[in-house]
Amino acid sequence: MSAAEFTDFVDYFIPDYAQEIAANYRLSLAEATEQARREIETSLPAAQKTPGHSLTSITLAGNGTTQIVGSLWYRADFIDKSAFIYDFYLRPAFRGKGLGSQAMQSLESKLSAAGIRQIKLRVAAENEHARKVYEANGYQITGYNMNKLL
Fold this sequence. Notes:
This protein has four helices and four strands; from the N terminus they run ααβββαβα. It has about 150 residues and is of the alpha+beta class.
């Protein structure tokens, strides 16, 4: 991911993640936006060059052009041979065409070749479409996230 692509990623990620935080953790949108901003700054202090993290633009080639259709952020842990997907996004115009499954299969091949044996991720409770895509690609529910406001 280039620096310009990272800027586009952050411009999408912060408001999208803030919506999820607000919905799932019952915070105001302003509080959720600040939390999302803090989390991205803490998680990726060197932007797209943060060691240990992989940020990739998902592209579609055709008719002599390459078009960015989404993004993928993950971290591989070679000690426990697992990877965690922090964010997987396809632009709305490219959803429902099998591109998400293709991107996941490409990632699985790449990680498997590197010795990774397991991929973990979290899906927001209200994101039924994403859950269905992951389940269709062999992912299983392993638990539930819960919270309580004090």
